[in-house]
């Protein structure tokens, strides 16, 4: 498998999951401004959407969208317990978090990267983000991870997105449980390996 990624982007979550699972893979960096891969390939020919992540499977097929990729990867090694069995309520709980992170946290934080965002829109976006992080903070109280004591693919996704906050000037101190979660996930060996590989630490 080959993961097409950009350092620190949302492709960080499947990169983390690949290392958590210890699956064989290669990576290729993508310049998202030029839409070129490190080997000079037009990235649109790999993923017509033009953004990372994209996972090229051994049969040549390409899977896109982070939440889909990390669930697919987890199912390749179910004994690692990064995703509960299909059809279980526990699986649905992880998917519930993946949907919330994708629609309510990822999209909200990503909007702040837009250099043309107005001051009013930025203020409203930060207010909305505060509500979403407040919900996450409360859910994490008494839990190491989103669904309890066990790390799942949803935790890799949340860590990746919340990791953008400091570079956007967002102070996370009002949500101490989220801060503790970020530190807890960052300390995992597979996460350290991934952050180092992407030049983030």
TrEMBL record:
The keyword Membrane does not apply. Residues 87-201 form the GST C-terminal domain. This is Glutathione transferase GstA. Keywords: Transferase. GO terms for molecular function: transferase activity. The keyword Flavoprotein does not apply. It comes from the Bacteria. CDD domains: GST_C_Beta (cd03188), GST_N_Beta (cd03057). Residues 1-81 form the GST N-terminal domain. InterPro entries: Glutathione-S-Trfase_C-like, Glutathione-S-Trfase_C_sf, Glutathione_S-Trfase, Glutathione_S-Trfase_N, GST_C, Thioredoxin-like_sf. It comes from Pseudomonas putida.
């Amino acid at each position: 498998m080959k993961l097409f990624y950009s350092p620190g982007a949302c492709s960080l979550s499947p990169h983390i999951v690949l290392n958590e699972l210890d699956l064989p893979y290669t990576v290729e960096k993508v310049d998202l401004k030029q839409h070129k891969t490190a080997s000079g390939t037009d990235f649109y020919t790999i993923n017509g959407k033009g953004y990372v992540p994209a996972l090229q499977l051994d049969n040549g097929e390409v899977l896109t969208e982070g939440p889909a990729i990390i669930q697919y990867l987890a199912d390749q090694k179910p004994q690692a317990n990064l995703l509960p069995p299909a059809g279980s309520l526990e699986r649905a709980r992880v998917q519930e978090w993946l949907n919330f992170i994708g629609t309510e946290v990822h999209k909200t934080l990503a909007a702040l990267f837009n250099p043309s965002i107005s001051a009013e829109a930025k203020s409203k976006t930060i207010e909305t983000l505060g509500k979403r992080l407040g919900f996450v903070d409360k859910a994490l109280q008494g839990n190491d991870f989103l669904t309890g004591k066990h790390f799942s693919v949803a935790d890799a996704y949340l860590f990746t997105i919340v990791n953008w906050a400091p570079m956007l000037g967002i102070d996370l101190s009002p949500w101490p449980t989220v801060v503790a979660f970020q530190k807890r996930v960052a300390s995992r060996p597979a996460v350290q390996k991934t952050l180092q590989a992407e030049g983030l630490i």
